[in-house]
Design a protein that fits this description.
The protein contains 17 helices and no strands.
Length: about 425
């Protein structure tokens, strides 16, 4: 009989690199432009990045409490199952598979090919080939063992942090200074801040993924909290420092008008080599983020299958490499299908509202589990409880509602795709083996 358990092989550094490596993708190079369009003021720009980081930090602390209490493979899926039952848990995994996670991986692979175009011309078919090859290579790495995947994650996380650090230092030391910004013609409204927060929260997204490998982290009662705390805190420092550096080179008005903020800052701070430098840094960032997603996300389908809510094959563990091998390769196959058909472009519009629905329900699970399982050992208790989880849930609901107001069609379709999981749940539900 094949093993159905995944060994604990991930260290604290491995877990922290997963957090940092997944969160920091291309967002910090592109999102500042969207923020500046809503908030054309340097103090307000810095404020929204700080507030968004604190909100994400609160979400991470909620997952730290649940992860240390229930350090099982599948993370968020397991938390929802224990707090609300199997149906909401299944809908979480369903949402990841059919709406968000595979689409986001396909989008990252396609984005990699677009930035690779800075160094070489790729026809459409060539970009598809490169994107599919990247998916296959990263899947093979993580198929061969979680330790190998973690080493790749640490290498690319270190490389991208080095690139961003060089950019920040070069900008701060540059003789170029930002020109005077256009004076505000109206006061900043609360709605403006909320719209800017949407973009910032997208840039901070990814901290949840470490929970998917909670069952493979050594000394989880201590290391889950440490990895989430250190990882999200480091990302906050990087993001705030990067925005401070951007504002030292470009005014809020220039940032708002730029389609490639990171590249424009690099051009001014590093000269002609700036464009190539930032393109290379973004490529490293994308590889690190994509590798982290392949390393973690297949564990959700693995946990579902163990509960009898998905094909049994997805619960298999490779006898030599000790990885959810079938789950990994099927995840790759679906990502490749989305790349070749272009369906990722359709799904990515609906991904974020769907993901934040699961975030709101998951963090609410902290409150439910405190009442449902009051005597269960909690090596860590969420700071600021119950205020912090309540504030996070309110902010997450506001995010989804705002998405529905600003982009009603994608949000309604996202909620509809989640609802389609209800009949699927009853199809898959069957008694689990004891």
């Amino acid at each position: 009989m094949p093993s159905t358990e995944l060994p604990r092989q991930l260290s604290l550094i491995d877990a922290a690199s997963i957090v940092v490596g997944i969160i920091i993708g291309a967002g910090i190079f592109l999102v500042p432009s969207l923020v500046a369009k809503s908030l054309p003021s340097a103090p307000w720009i810095m404020a929204v990045w700080v507030v968004s980081g604190i909100l994400s930090f609160c979400g991470a602390l909620a997952f730290a409490e649940m992860g240390a209490m229930m350090p099982a493979t599948g993370g968020q899926y397991v938390f929802l199952r224990e707090a609300f039952g199997p149906l909401p848990a299944f809908l979480c995994g369903w949402t990841f598979l059919v709406v968000s996670m595979t689409a986001s991986m396909a989008w990252l692979a396609v984005s990699f090919c677009r930035y690779l175009g800075y160094f070489m011309h790729l026809p459409d078919w060539g970009a598809n080939v490169v994107g599919c090859a990247l998916v296959i290579v990263l899947t093979w790495i993580n198929y061969r063992g979680v330790v190998l995947g973690a080493w790749v994650q640490k290498i690319f996380t270190g490389a991208k942090l080095t690139g961003i650090f060089v950019l920040i230092v070069a900008a701060l030391l540059s003789s170029h200074t930002a020109t005077a910004s256009v004076p505000l013609t109206r006061p900043i409204r609360f709605g403006d801040f909320g719209v800017a927060m949407i973009s910032c929260l997208l840039a901070y997204d990814g901290w949840v993924n470490m929970s998917f490998v909670a069952g493979e982290i050594r000394d989880p009662k201590r290391n889950i909290l440490r990895a989430l705390f250190a990882g999200v805190a480091l990302v906050m420092i990087v993001y705030i420092s990067a925005n401070f550096a951007y504002l030292s080179i470009l005014s809020p008005t220039e940032i708002a008008q730029s389609e490639r903020v990171g590249a424009d800052v690099a051009d001014r701070a590093l000269g002609p080599a700036g464009g190539a430098f930032i393109a290379a840094t973004i490529l490293l960032s994308i590889i690190g983020s994509l590798n982290g997603r392949f390393l973690t996300q297949a564990r959700v389908y693995f946990a579902q299958a163990q509960d009898g809510l998905f094909f049994k094959k997805f619960a298999e563990v490779h006898p030599v490499y000790k990885t959810p091998s079938f789950s990994l390769w099927m995840q790759a196959a679906l990502s490749i299908l989305l790349i070749l058909t272009g369906s990722w472009n359709f799904l990515i519009e609906y991904a974020m509202p769907a993901i934040w629905v699961t975030y709101a329900v998951s963090v609410a699970g902290v409150i439910v589990l405190r009442r449902k399982l009051p005597n269960l050992e909690r090596p860590y208790k969420m700071w600021g409880y119950p205020v912090t989880p309540v504030l996070f849930v309110i902010a997450a609901v506001a995010f989804v509602v705002n998405s529905g107001i600003e982009n009603p069609k994608p949000t309604l379709i996202a909620l509809g795709l989640i609802a389609l999981g209800v009949p699927a749940y009853f199809i898959w539900r069957r008694p689990t083996s004891s």
